[in-house]
Specification:
Elements: H1 10-19, H2 22-34, E1 37-38, H3 39-43, H4 50-62, E2 66-71, E3 74-79, H5 82-111
Antiparallel strand pairs: 1-3, 2-3
């Protein structure tokens, strides 16, 4: 992921757009926890029609977050985690920022007197 002028690539934008939706994040969680699954097994977890879930799967596939394999009449979906590593790389400086801030807050609180002392 680029760290330049704040404009991401089209691929980066697709990944972040895919992750912005709670249904798609839940699909990724299911695939992470339960491994590759056919569309119907995924659909059983959602209160939506299959065409709606298929649209979510298409977005995830175009973002590179899932892959699809045909097995007879079934389509099996598998998590592809590489784009998530790129997101983690992008988020890392923010994690470091907040860790430093919280460390500073902890140091400040340690210097303050306790209220329960006479």
């Amino acid at each position: 992921m680029s760290t330049g002028t704040g404009t991401g690539t089209a691929a980066e934008d697709r990944v972040f757009a895919a992750l912005a939706n709670a249904t798609r994040r839940e699909v990724l969680r299911l695939l992470r926890e339960r491994g590759p699954q056919p569309v119907q097994a995924l659909a059983d977890h959602f209160d939506m029609r299959r065409p709606s879930l298929s649209e979510h799967l298409r977005v995830l596939r175009e973002a590179g977050l899932v892959s699809e394999q045909r097995s007879g009449r079934q389509r099996i979906y598998r998590l592809e985690a590489a784009p998530l590593a790129e997101v983690q790389d992008w988020l890392h400086p923010y994690e470091r920022f907040w860790r430093d801030r919280l460390k500073g807050l902890g140091e400040l609180l340690d210097r303050l007197p306790d209220d329960d002392q006479p």
